[in-house]
Amino acid sequence: MRIAIIGGTGDLGKGLALRWAKNHDIILGSRSQEKGAKVAEEYTHLAKQAFENEFKGSITGTENSQAASRGELVALAVPFESAMENARPLKSVLKNDQIVLSTMVPMRRVEKVFEYAPFVNVEPASGKVTILSAAEILAQELPPANRIVSGLHTMSAKRLSDLRKSVDCDIVLCGDEPEKVGRIARLIEEIPGVKTYYAGPLRVSSLLESVTPFIINIAAHSKKHEPLIKII
Questions:
Q1: pLDDT tens readout for residues 123-164
Q2: Tell me, what DSSP letter sits at residue 7?
Q3: Which residue of 1, 102, 116, 224 shows the fewest CB atoms closer than 10 Å?
Q4: Rounded Cα distance, 171 and 185, in Å
Q5: Phi and psi for 19 in degrees, rounded to 5?
Q6: Where are the alpha helices (DSSP H) in the chain?
């Protein structure tokens, strides 16, 4: 599979690129084509060291829109604060059969506590309040909505990037098209130690996203580094 990772030079993007490059062709997306290409060389060196003769994929790097146009899967591994800025230019290059994976979590820090901060829309006429997750906002920006799969919110980027370690966690996914979710699930389960679960349509993404600040707060107050989710 050709996998474009927007934000591929960041922490989560690095881990996904290194893990998936064993068997797939990775295209790192960056704001700068030069940076994308340079980081791709670094990641290729790390992947070859780790996988040796089992390394059957590739890692290249380019500018975000070029990367997105070439990927069968487009993974958005960017902070929510810059997500829409990175996502909007992709609308003109994406094809309807491409899958977009949203890993984004809108949250804010209030004193020493992280809080989930979804988008709140109030209709002027009726006063009706609608709360939208990051994935639902992305679906509005990059229709059709059934191309969006939401997940990987609780993945430890640090552990994912350490190819000596099994990640050993469960990942919950949601999306409106089960077939697309299934393709993402199979891809994620290629990462040693990871099992996936389907939680339902995209409208439940706020439940998945809100777990991230929850476990960050646990880590901060219990001194437990890199907490991960397991479903038993």
A1: 888 888 888 999 999 999 999 999 999 999 999 999 999 998
A2: T
A3: 224
A4: 9
A5: -70, -45
A6: 11-20, 33-51, 64-70, 83-87, 134-141, 157-161, 178-188, 205-209, 211-222
Most confident listed range (85-89, 109-113, 210-214): 210-214
- What residues contact 16, with CB distance under 8 A and at least 6 apart? 3, 5, 8, 75, 77, 152, 160
Structure tokens at 159: 């552990």
Output the CA angle 29-25-97, nearest 5 degrees: 75
DSSP helix/strand/coil, 122: strand
> Is CATH 3.30.70.120 the right assignment for the domain spanning 2-222?
no
Asked if 47 and 21 count as a contact pair (C-beta separation under 8 A), the reply is yes
Rounded distance, CA 90 to CA 69, Å? 8
Per-residue 3-state assignment (H helix, E strand, C coil) for 77-121: CCCHHHHHHHHHHHCCCCCCCCEEEECCCCEEEECCEEEECCEEE
Size (the chain), residues: 232
pLDDT tens digits, 193-204: 999 999 999 999
- Other CB atoms within 10 Å distance of the CB of residue 157: 17
Q: How far is CA 91 from CA 18, 83, 131, in A?
A: 26, 13, 23
Helix (H, G, I), strand (E, B) or coil at 47: helix
Q: Phi then psi for 97, rounded to 5 degrees? A: -90, 0
d(CA 19, CA 159): 11
